[in-house]
């Protein structure tokens, strides 16, 4: 039992031992600590010079005896094959002892003995045996005379010994790199270990060894920990598995939408944290409570219905007068015991929402651009890699395996589409004409829809002045817009079919066109809102006068009644107030967002899920095949969803200044839609007919987002800089413009000289040069990046060319090589094995020739597969250990020379036989 | 030790716990490919075959250990490449030819591609990786190609032990 454990342990060690020194360090690691002193291989000893070696020699004889016995003990544990090999070797040794001087012969014998070893190891083995032989001599002599005969070993021999020991150790440590059978590995390992043990047993047993082993163990643990940590990190990425699942079934393009959605969610989460942490929570905690002042109270007239659901659903009533909207905030400069400057914070947060978003979008665009240039160039082996490396050997779970199969299939399909696209060549003129036509058609469509919107908006303005208009007239703009939004994208898609783009490029065009359509939509909405705001502003002036008058009157009356200390007992709910346009705008945005969410979800539910259910279940009793025919299942609409997301985000950016709670709603929306859409896609959609690969960087989405961000920044900046805030609501009430809050803070809270610096900085004389400088910098950087790009393209081209060249060169070389090899076969059969060591090694073809003493050659020939060599067995019959001492007669190889190839006559003829002889000589001399 | 445990576990009645007497025991392929590591692998038969000494798919304990040592994460790239080549070489003629590629592809995709797609892909693979222009991939071609693959070492062709 114990022995079996040893055996198993040895095997295990073999497995583990290689934190392999590919870099040639002669150190094997865990063995040292795991083998518990059984195998006393010493590692890692610096070549301590002959002084040390001499000491070693003195110890040697005893050690030898021990080793001898130990080896015998080991023997039964070894496998039969290895034992046999040993045996053979001992025979060889015996012979060697007889014919000491004829090393050459011995080596050929070795080659015979060890059938499928590489030449290198052969050599080593031979040397090892020689050494063992000497060694045995030593030991026998020491046994007989009990005296040390280290004098008989000269210095040179010692040095050689050291070298051989080093070699052996190298062999041990690189053992695992060799593609051998385990049996062979074991036997070789044992031999090498025994050898090393003999000569190095005394060395390297100091403290260093343990420390080293410990170090190695720690290194290994660290690697493992790092891998585990990486796994953990991927597990921590939210929805990674979900997205991967979708990707495996629907391709990377659909997955790119979900990745985009996830990224969006991250950004919104940060915005949410910013707004909630710095604005809403301080206001709730430290601001004046609800009902304490007019702006925080529901007016008397609305109080009766303020809690009704229908009112709340319209974000009126209590919701309107809550911290979710701009109007709730007070213009008190500092609140609470922290002296928190809420108006200032509100303003800064509003700005930083935009600042942060801009920064994040641009940064991720830059990173994507980096990535796409970084790994875009190595596309030489797309299909090969897909074929040979796509399976993940770690998969052990049936579900994952299913996913993997699906994803590999989609991956192949994607690549096939790409490939077909690049191979397509047809009438280029026709295609150009069609593309121009398509673009003209689409521009017509866009112009038409633009005009339609303009017309409808104009009409609605006239309608709004009239009284008692019907429901249709009131909602005409919205209806027209949603109709346009519903019918234009499919129209574009049909037109785009004319163009016959690659689906990836087609998607971009589609996105761009729908984007243009939606922009019209958005801006008409904004214009309508602006009109509204202007109206409200006019109304506000009126109310302002009324309130002032009322308050004045009230104050006067209270002055008469009671003391001046008491506050006016007018209930805050009764105070007349202005329309507070900011809150109105905020409500408008919130409503829009919510209705958008609802429409999206309902569309998914009806358009995808119900349809899928219908197709699936009614198919059993229908006159035509529903699944293949008309309704079929829905495809996932990438362009629509991406644009929906982008525009929604635009709304959030615009609205978040007027309704701080909007971001919270959006976070909820993104969260639910992640799960909902994932579910809907997996349950009720089918993959696109042509699954295509998304471009690696989704910079196009980001570009759209950036555009929307910029567009939504404009109106907000306009209102901040040039519209007066409402007089009785919001944090900026009482100021002429919103940005005055900054000036106020600078003047009141900062020392004078900072205020001065600011005023200098705001000077146009400074600002204009700064802008000029920036423009110049942009121009310069742009030029530089263009130059880099050009250089990049150039390099890529060069690489491609070099690859082609390599291919050609290699072609030629291999042709030459095969010719040379054939010749060499003829001349020196024993060298043959060296040419194909790997193949002879890797494949164990059970050729019938193996019984023949020349099994090795026979095999090599079979592998070579050329009819010439196999047909030439007769030539090889003379036993190889009688060296080919005379140049072959030309008669033997003359029939096999290549009459049709230009063969550099005399020169190579002289060279080749020389080579044939040279090889065996070399191998023996070494 | 651990491995021996695994090996023993698969066929407790055949494999002795005691290895002192060096028994000549082999496990048939059916048992090996039901290991959780191999169960889902589309190439499981090939893997086992190329590691077995007799080419029939029966593994002795030494072969078994061999398999794990090659597929462990510490084995060097060259070694993995050699065995990967053996695995993908279905008809063991030392070349990956079109038939091998087709088989590989069918196993990878569970035969969901059409015949034209398969031929297209196979042609592309040979066109890409075949450096010496003989219409099939020798080991040199294979190694050249695989050594440039980004994820060959990182996660494909590897086991957890």
UniProtKB/TrEMBL annotation, chain A:
Which of UniProt's keywords are assigned here?
Membrane, Signal, Transmembrane, Transmembrane helix
Annotated signal sequence range: 1-19
What Pfam families has UniProt attached to this entry? TMC
The TMC domain, residue ranges: 580-695
**Biological process terms in GO annotation:** detection of mechanical stimulus involved in sensory perception of sound; vestibular reflex
- Start-end of Acidic residues biased regions: 26-36
Q: Where is the composition biased (Basic residues)?
A: 80-89
Query: What subcellular compartments does it reside in?
Result: Membrane
Q: Where are the transmembrane segments?
A: 263-285, 344-362, 436-457, 477-498, 510-530, 657-679, 700-721, 757-781
Q: Which family does it belong to?
A: Belongs to the TMC family.
Protein name in UniProt: Transmembrane channel-like protein
Automatic annotation (TrEMBL), chain B:
Q: Read off the lineage from the record.
A: Eukaryota, Metazoa, Chordata, Craniata, Vertebrata
Keyword field contains Magnesium: yes
Q: Which GO terms describe its biological process?
A: calcium ion homeostasis
Organism whose genome encodes this protein:
Anser cygnoides (Swan goose)
- GO molecular function, one example? magnesium ion binding
Domain EF-hand: where?
Answer: 39-74, 76-111, 117-152
Q: List GO terms (cellular component aspect).
A: cytoplasm; photoreceptor inner segment; photoreceptor outer segment; sarcolemma; stereocilium
What compartments host this protein?
A: Cell membrane, Sarcolemma; Cell projection, Cilium, Photoreceptor outer segment; Cell projection, Stereocilium; Cytoplasm
Q: Does the keyword Metal-binding apply?
A: yes
Q: Which InterPro entries does the entry link to?
A: CIBP, EF-hand-dom_pair, EF_Hand_1_Ca_BS, EF_hand_dom
**What's the protein here called?**
Calcium and integrin-binding family member 2
Gene3D superfamilies under this entry?
EF-hand (1.10.238.10)
Keywords from UniProt, A to Z, are: Calcium, Cell membrane, Cell projection, Cytoplasm, Magnesium, Membrane, Metal-binding, Repeat
